[in-house]
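Input sequence (150 aa), recorded before submission:
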Amino acid sequence: MLRFYRSFSACRAVLNNGKTINPFDKLADKQSLLTTGMMSGFGMRQDKKSNILVSAEDMQLREEALETPIRGVQAGRTVGVINGDTATAVRRLTTKLIANGVPMDKRKQRFHMKPGKAAELKRSQRHRRDFKKGFKRLIEIVKDARRKGY
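Predicted structure, token format:
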């Protein structure tokens, strides 16, 4: 999952700041916000550290994003976008989904299956898994025997 924002102006400052993994970190320090004067007024202000124009609304959105934790199912499907490189982020997300078996689950859940048929398939999969494990064990025994000279 890629994080999206309510307005373009909220996202602009994040995209322009490619120096950190979490672009919100640079402006999150409330003390630095107060000293740069960005919390007062409603016009555009320039942050002295990163030279980004930021409005008070943008600061509020940024603080909301920092305080909102990612929980539940979304947390396992979230990757960070580093330096605005979305292609790499999408590849990492795809890798993470494949590792978690999401495409396989999607295929399995595409059609309804009767309970009896599901149980039969489950037994068959268990047998195949156990057979594969036993076969691998047998191959290891044969390799060990050949190594010992039998």
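Checked by second reader. The beta strands are 45-46, 53-54.
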